[in-house]
Amino acid sequence: MNTAARSLCALALLLAASHFVTGRELAPAAAEAWSGAELALLKSLHIGALAAQAPDPSNAYEGSPAAAALGKKIFFDPRFSANGRVSCASCHDPGRQFQDGRPLGVGIATGLRRTMPIAAGSASPWQFWDGRKDSVWSQALGPLEDAREHSGNRVAYARLLSRHYRQEYEAVFHALPDAAALADNASPLGTPAEKAAWARLTETQRSEVSRAFANMGKAIAAYEKTLQHGPSRLDGYIAATLAQPGGGEGMLAASEKRGLRLFIGKAQCITCHAGPLLTDQHFHNTGVPPRDRSNPDRGRAAAIETVMKDEFNCLGPYSDARRRDCAELEFIAADDPHMLGAFKTPSLRNAALRPPYMHAGQIATLEDVIRHSARAPSAAVGHNERRPMPLSEQEVADLAAFLGTLNGEIRELK
């Protein structure tokens, strides 16, 4: 956690502590008043506080409009799947905040976890619920070869690029390999037949196909970087409140304002759901019950080795980064016991629009998510880092109402 995040957490905890000292809610006459410390927290949540997303040094093409245009076409093209019916947009549906509304993602088959939304994804150094990928372009490649998702293979993808996108691809990247000279289906991660076909390719052929595959991911990432959150009602309220005392009067309902006070105070939600995206981009064990109690998901702890060995990581042969650009990977905490059963903190923007919740859709409603967090039950694996936080049903309802103020348009920037 960086210095700014630690300071924000300390401020939030101080405000929460002050609630317990007073032992009472604010009087109705003072309900619109915010202290200087509270205003600082509100400002930190405003979408305007979101820093410009730094370029990804491992993807030299993410700022290219031509790469983004190609990536958008691939993103919506179902031919990039084993059955010709699954595209990236099948799970990342623009009409559903670029997710699918299902407890578990469904591609060729049913997946193991919930589909994550992708807007502003490049703001995080780690991708997926467990952080098993360290860039957006590398993340885009995972589903393409996953048997439950697209279930495709690298040579087939190179053929598709050659048949349908050669001119656009070669205008951005290098020349495509001669896929016609290769086996129809070959991949290091595919079926036994595909693995055998891959082994028969020369080292140069494998490298050329993998480079084309990596460039697909870089093009998709260039498109995904154009997807950003627009302002929500909360942003409007914060802007008006910061402009002048009482400037936001009437912009939020009473329940929503009470929920906001709880969020930055007593309930301590802002400790993890901090900043303009309302996430610390880190991993936490909050005792979420596993879908399969006989085989609980180990979360981040199981993903660290995966990302370290990934040929498409920041240090890999297809990255455009220098070694010194890959500090997150170089200094990863490989033996942190707190990562057992830990999952990534999701952004709360548009959360009210995308039930069910948690990493495998285990909880149906926002109210039940809040109740779960307040109870802080023992974790099935690892240790729940939260402590019980008694909340009344009115407070649960107020927090859920506040979360509804975070809904906003997802914009495609040009």
Please give a structural write-up:
- By secondary structure, this protein is mostly helical.
- It has two domains: 3-53 and 251-299 and 340-412, Cytochrome c-like domain (Cytochrome Bc1 Complex, Chain D, domain 2); 65-224, Orthogonal Bundle (Cytochrome Bc1 Complex, Chain D, domain 2).
- Helices cover 39% and strands 4% of the residues.
- It contains 15 helices and four strands.
- The chain has helices at 3-22, 36-45, 65-75, 88-91, 136-145, 154-164, 166-172, 192-200, 203-224, 233-243, 254-264, 300-309, 327-330, 366-375, 393-403; strands spanning 227-232, 283-284, 343-344, 408-412.
- The strands form two sheets. Strands 1-4 form a two-stranded antiparallel sheet. It has a two-stranded antiparallel ribbon with strand order 2-3.
- Helix 3 (65-75) packs across helix 9 (203-224), helix 5 crosses helix 9 (203-224) and helix 6 (154-164) packs across helix 9 (203-224).
- The longest helix is centred in the middle third of the chain and has 22 residues, at 203-224.
- The protein is globular and about 70 Å long.
- The model is unreliable at 1-8 and 10-30 (pLDDT under 50).
- Residues 66-177, 254-407 form the Cytochrome c domain.
- Its main location: periplasm.
